[in-house]
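Follow-up to my post from last week.
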Amino acid sequence: MASLLRSHVDGVLTLALNRPDKLNAFDDALATALLAALTEAGSDPTVRVVVLTGSERAFSAGQDLDELFDAEAGLAHSVREHLRASFNRIAIALRTIDKPVIAAVGGVAAGVGLSLALACDLRFAADDARFTLGFSRIGLIPDGGASVMLPLLIGLGRALELAWTSDVIDAAEAHRIGLVNRVVPAISLGDDTAAFARKLAGMSGSAVALTKRAMNAAIVPQLAAVLEGEAELQERAASSPDVRAGVRAFRERRAQAR
Ligand code: T3D
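User reply:
Got it. Predicted complex:
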């Protein structure tokens, strides 16, 4: 089964992250497929709106920790180079594609999964959705552009609190603080998002695109600089023994849950 599912109906391209056994965590193949799909959508005139969602229980739990960190060998790669090659490019693609991108979040959004939802234009959440940055729990810092998009959406104090604590918040709280645009019943997340996407698809394509470009003008240069800064700082964070301990703790919780 493909790790990225696509459906294209009435001008709305829906991209569904599809690694449900791992809560749609990103391996390299999924990150590559998502970047390619966004690039393709950007130049396809029949795509007027993009919806990014996850299959089954989650939007995405972020980077696949089994790919990132081996208990024996440690880090599998330089996180700086990995961020540059994957999530940084996806975040920029989400913000610069000349079409609206709506994140439809059902279940959990964590780590860079949440960061990418923040890089989308709008966020619709199912009433069962949960949100956590989660990076600090494994000794890392927010990446994927969350260091600029989250303060922009919810304010600096709230963003730092969520980043430092890795607290999990529910959909109602996410809506209250401005992290999501709207909350809908879980059962109708797909339909409600598609209905809104169709409404946008029926608007003037050039007005929609130019509005995004105008609102992006100040944000994209900042986002690009922050992504590069995050990559450097994440490289430093990843060299701490806290990462090994954090990932081990996550795996032990998982083992205990079995
Ligand atoms: O190089 C680079 O690019 C560095 C970049 C890093 C970017 C990042 O995203 S770092 C942050 C990575 N993500 C996390 O640390 C989140 C880890 N997951 C969790 O904390 C929890 O799973 C959740 C809070 C998201 C959800 O909790 P819960 O209780 O609903 O689900 P669960 O039981 O923990 O997870 C269900 C399964 O998904 C479980 O597998 P199992 O036991 O059923 O076989 C779990 O291990 C798996 N899973 C969840 N998250 C990940 C994962 N597997 C691999 N990687 C994950 N990130």
